[in-house]
Amino acid sequence: MTASTEFWLISAPGEKTTKETWDRLNKYTAIKNQALSQNSKFSLPDLKVGTLDILVGLSDELGKLDGYVETVTHKLAQYLGEVLEDHGDKLAGNLLANGTDLTSYMTRFQWDLAKYPIKQPLKNIAEIISKQVSQVDADLKTKAHSYNNLKGTLQSLERKSIGSLLTRNLGDLVKKDDFITNSEYLTTLLVVVQNAHEDEWVNKYENLADMVVPKSSRKIFTDGEHTLFTVTLFKKVVDEYKLHARENKFVVRDFTYSEEEVAAGKNELKKLTTDKDKQYGPLVRWLKINFSECFMAWIHVKAIRVFVESVLRYGLPVNFQAMLLHPYKKSQKRLREILKDLYCHLDTSGTANTVSETNFDIPGFMVNNEYYPYVYYPININFWEKK
To answer: Which residues form the signal peptide (predicted)?
Structure first.
C-alpha cells in the first residue's frame, strides 16, 4: 500500500511499561495481518517539566510557534522550487533534513542536544527556536528580494530580445551598414510590416512622402508575423512619412543606431546573466541548508508539544509513549476507528472522535475542533506543493 505525506504524532500513557503501550498499538493497527500504518517510536529526552501553570501557558505559545515555523519552512521550500524552476520531483529530491529524506528523519528522530540543551527550561528552548527561525525568515526576504529583482530585470531584457518586432529590442538585428549615418540631410527608418502586407509595403513605401530615396528599402529580419524593413529619406519629411505609414498600418519604430548603445545593451544582458548565475548556486545551497534547519526545528517544536500536552493530560510522574504513525492512503478513517477503540478508556467525557459545537480549548485535546482521547498532532511533509 502507498503511504501518504501525512503523519500522526500521538502519545498514550504508559501501562506497566512504555513497551507494552508500544506493543499494544502495533497489535491494534494490524488488521488481519495487514497494517493500516507504518509505526515508529518517537524518542523524547528527559525534558524539564516545570510547574503546571508554566506548562498551560506554554501550550498556547507552542501552538503559535508550531504554525509559524511550519509557515517559514513552506516558504523556503516553495522559493527553492521557484529558483529551481520546478515544483515536482526535482524539488522533492532537494528537500532533506540533516542530509536524509524527511520521512527517515522523523521516524529516526533524535533530539539535538547541542542546539537545544535539555537542561534549559522548555520556554527557553522555544525562544531559541523562535529566534533561529525568525532570523531565517528575515534573511529569506532579503535574499528573495535581491534575486527576484535581478531575475525580473533579466527576464525583461530577454523578452525585449526575443519578442515581437513591434516591441523587441532591435539592436541585435541591425548593423551599421543598414543605416545612413553622419548625413546632414538623410536618415534611415526601421519599419515593421505585417507579413501579409509585405507586397503592399514594397509597392507603397516610396510614395508615402516626398523625398524618399528610391529603391532604398531593405528587408532586415522576418519572424512569424512581421518583417522589419529599412527605408532612407530626407530628415525634413520624417514626421509626414510616419503619419502616412501609420495610416497604412506600417509601424515606424523609434530607433537611432548607436554602436555604443547596442554594445551597452548586449553587455548589460551578459552582465545580468553572469550575476544571476553567480547568485544561483549559493542561493540554492542556502535554501537547502535553511530548509533543513527549519524543518528540524519544526519537528523539535512538535516534540515539545507532545511532551507538554502528555504531561498535562496524563499527569506526573512522566510516563507515556510518543509514537509516530504514517497512515497508508485510504486507511485514515479505519485507523482512526482503531485508535478510538484502543484508547476509549482514556475518555471520560464521552465525546471522543466527535466534532464539538462549542469553542473550548483543552491542551492536546482538540485539532480543528475534533476531540481525541489521546494526544494527537498531524505532520504533513508535502512541501513540494503550494500551501
So the answer is: none
